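PROTOCOL LOG
Step 1. Enter all chains and additional molecules of the complex.
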Amino acid sequence: MAYDYDLFVIGAGSGGVRASRLAAMSGAKVAVAEEDRSGGTCVIRGCIPKKYMVYASEFGRSLKHMEGYGWKIENASYDHNLFMDKMHREIDRLSGIYARNVKNAGAELIDDRAEFVDAHTLTLKKSGRTVTAGKILIATGGWPVMPKEVEGIEHAITSAEMFHLEQLPKHILIVGGGYIAVEFAGIMSGLGSTVCLVYRGNTVLRGFDDDVRTHVHDELKRKDVKVITNASPVRIEKAGDEFTTHFSNKESVTADKVLFAVGREPHTNGLGLEKAGVKLNDKGAVIVDEHSRTNIPHIFAVGDVTDRINLTPVAIREGQAFAQSEFMNLPTAFDHANVPHAVFAQPPVGVVGLSEAEA
Ligand code: NDP
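Step 2. Run joint prediction.
Step 3. Record the structure below.
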């Protein structure tokens, strides 16, 4: 049977773009559907803007140290809107590069949402077009989790909205003790907000070496972040422009912004995977083998939607291994052992391999 495409990719993020470019360059007829801008979480609402915010926040601290080294800058100030404007221009530029790279490789980039009709057929929601493909790659990424059991959770924001704050909050509460919570605690305090981080465990960054965890925790406090541990969020109440969040240990924190950074979940909702017969695990992640193949032999998935190691370079390598195996006659399985992780805490932390406790 002849299909419209050899490969149809859902999602133009890190994994989807790498796979589609390589497959197209090998001569396959490839299309990529993206409902948002090209670039995915990393470029649009993750690593890249986060890193710019880390840089922005570090200047404030450098300025404080400068005088000790003989430098003087009169009237230094931070203009949040100016920074956001410049950051978003850069994100637009990078997103444009992602889109151009897809097209330059010979793949078709479709500005639309794709959903499964059956195991070889997808419908494009905006245009109403139906397309068929010999192979399909699911690369739809992940999305922040918001715990529904917390009363008033609708008053909280996720990391996605942190990149669109119109004003710098005077006081921000950050719930969580993982990558995103720790990174934004450093960023927001460096930019000038008063920051309180509340974590349900003993100390931040569970899973990292204990001495790393203690060091990051101490550095947060040294940078004026108030850290409350062993407390879980129960209820958020709005009063005027402020929000009071109540915790299980009976403490409460009032702030003008409340960020929940309590994990991310695979973005599979509404994709119609059941119509294609693709199996998900109990967290909603697409189940794949070491070649990123689902239980349906011609359907594959890479990146955060598979919830293996949710990092950009991993999605890229999974996408590359898929394209090499399926379109370049180079069977490759990405090795998920010993992948380095970096947390852009201040100072940043990098780890690879076993933790000391595991060893
Ligand atoms: P993480 O899984 O890193 O951390 C989630 C945090 O939220 C943990 O401290 C967890 O506690 C806590 N938590 C979970 N559920 C609740 C709840 N119901 N109430 C209160 N606290 C809760 O998730 P993030 O959202 O920070 O980041 C998501 C993923 O994105 C990361 O795991 C990583 O894969 C990726 N990422 C990578 C970055 C990088 O490479 N630098 C930067 C940002 C994100 P506990 O520890 O007790 O489970």
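Step 4. Note key features.
The pocket of NDP is lined by residues 147, 175-181, 183, 199-201, 206, 232-233, 261-264, 310-311, 342-344 (CB under 6 Å).
The chain has nine helices and 18 strands.
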